[in-house]
Amino acid sequence: MQRIARFLVCLATVVVVGCAPTPPRPIETKALWHDAHFVARDLADAAEILTANDAMRDYLRKDIARQLRRDGPMRGLVAALEKDSQLKLDYDAAVTRTAAQAFSARQGNCLSLTLMTASLARELGLPVRYRKVITDENWSRRNEMLVSAGHVNILIEASGAEGLNGTSRGMIVDFLPGSDILRQRAITIDEATVLAMFMNNRAVESIAAGDADSAYAWLKLAIAQAPRVTESYNTLGVLYQRRAMLAEAETVYRAVLDREPENITALANLAGVLERLGQMDDAALIMSRLRRIEPHPPLYYFDEGVAALKRGEYEEAEQQFERELARNAEHSQSLAGLAVAKYRQGKPADGQRHLAAALAAAVDVDERRIYADKMAWLTRQKTVQQ
Question: What structural domains and CATH numbers belong to the chain?
Answer without folding.
Answer: 49-204 (3.10.620), 300-385 (1.25.40.10)
